[in-house]
Amino acid sequence: MTRHIYSVGQQVSFVGRVVTYLRRAGVFSITKLLPPVGAELQYRVKSEHEGHERVASEHELHVVKLEKSIVVARSRLSSIESAARVFARFP
């Protein structure tokens, strides 16, 4: 029996999906381990930016490294700081 390589709560990203208009870029969290479809293990994943969950096959997922999350957070913080400076100029 094949075991899931990702666990609930782990952060992952999608890669290589053919139908890219259905895929959102970003970090997803594993919310549930699903039974296999044929030989392919599946997962239920959720992004903090979407209200719904998605189903992803194991081959479509990759671990998100902590460094990437820190860079994204730093980038978002810079955007917020820039916006705050713009609004601070207007009384």
Chart the SSEs and their pairings.
Layout lengths: L10 E4 L13 E10 L2 E8 L5 E5 L3 E3 L2 H23 L3
Antiparallel strand pairs: 1-2, 1-5, 2-3, 3-4
Can you describe this structure?
By secondary structure, the chain is of the alpha+beta class. Helices cover 25% and strands 33% of the residues. The chain is built from 1 helix and 5 strands. The chain has a 5-stranded antiparallel beta sheet, with no helix packed on it. A hairpin with a 2-residue loop joins strand 2 and strand 3. The longest helix is centred in the last third of the chain and has 23 residues. It is globular. 9% of the residues are buried. The model has no long low-confidence stretch (mean pLDDT 75).
Mean pLDDT: 75
Spans where pLDDT lies below 50 across 5 or more residues: none
Distance linking N and C termini: 65 Å
What structural class do you assign from the helix and strand content?
alpha+beta
Q: Count of DSSP E strands? A: 5
Strand order, biggest sheet? Answer: 4-3-2-1-5
Main beta-sheet annotation = 5 strands, antiparallel
| Strand residues, percent | 25-35%
Number of helices: 1
Q: Give the overall shape.
A: globular
Helix fraction?
A: 25-40%
User: What string gives the helices and strands in order?
Assistant: EEEEEH
Overall radius of gyration: 17 Å
**Quaternary structure annotation:** single chain
